[in-house]
Amino acid sequence: MMDNCCVMHLTLLAISLPLSPYRLLYKLSTSISTSVLHRVWAEKSKVPIWSWLAMLSVPELNPLTHLAHLAFVDQAMSDLSVPHELNIDEHKAIIAHLKSLEESDSGEEGMRCFPLNLPGRPPLFIKHCDYDILAEATTQNFFHLLAKDDASAPRIPRVLDAFSSDEGDCFAVMEKIDAQTLGDCGIPEAEAVDLAAFAVKWLQDQLPSVPDTVFGRISSEEEAPVWHQFFKDHQAPGAFANPKVLAEYVSEASQRCRLKERRLSTDQVLDSFGDDRRIYHSDIKKENFLLNSKGVWIIDFQHIGVLPQVFQTYAFFNTGEPFAAKVGRKLGYQPSRTANAMVPISGVLQQCGGISIPSMYSSSFMRT
């Protein structure tokens, strides 16, 4: 006999998705009002409905769980996109403003990020680069949608648009946040660590909302390269389809280490990965978090994605960033031999860039 909580969840599912199994289960709970169901779901549910159904371990519900998971993946994939709210004239105004900055010799940093006011729009903040910024904007938009109605979540700026010019300049357009960085707002170091740890922990906890087909960048752009400090200049030479492909890449790089004991097989690398899929943040600095009366804000999503667990440990303790190490320890992480063993392999990549590694071009590295 299912308890009332179970029945209410199933009823909400039945009335919200037009699938026949849900309609059959709806007959179990016709006496429960829709308003009660929505309130219970909003207040009590902390996981996707398919995950909740799976935890019930009721064999009879397996077909329902499967359908719920498919519906969840469809919705999650639709969230891996970027709004396109600006019109062509507004795009032209942004491009013209960039050209005026170039003419005034504003410097590289001044042209990489700049505020802008457009008629009828809230104050805007523009990120500009000469690479495809769509993946970063997609990641930011994905987490913004998860956080916007959750009062307990960190704040994430709303993305309005991402586009490129005919000259190849790429732009991400988002709301401008009136706030200071954790390094400039005058709070004690311990409080800054607590706030950053809270934000990173929330990011990591969102893994159930990421489609299980996603590995690397959280984006619909399958070929978007991974950004992580393990790689040369923080950028991998390409996308990795799955953990095994990444392990082959790391193993191949390790063969160039001078000491034989640092050379690892693909299986050894896979064993060192820990969990295959974890949300990571590999650029944990005070400058990448803002603070105002609304709470702590996450503002850099280029270095956020899905990789094996060891890459988060590496980001905490093997990048030479003391603040990141403090955040890692706050979250219960510790330096590990596994992450330490990746340091000389990263050194190889810093020297050769990984692009010249032969297996990067072998068939095993092609997406299927």
From TrEMBL:
Residues 141-306 form the Aminoglycoside phosphotransferase domain. InterPro entries: Aminoglycoside_PTrfase, Kinase-like_dom_sf. Keywords: Signal. The keyword Signal applies. It comes from the Eukaryota. The keyword Signal applies. Pfam families: APH (PF01636). Residues 1-18 form the signal peptide. This is Aminoglycoside phosphotransferase domain-containing protein. It comes from Agrocybe chaxingu. The lineage of its organism: Eukaryota, Fungi, Dikarya, Basidiomycota, Agaricomycotina.
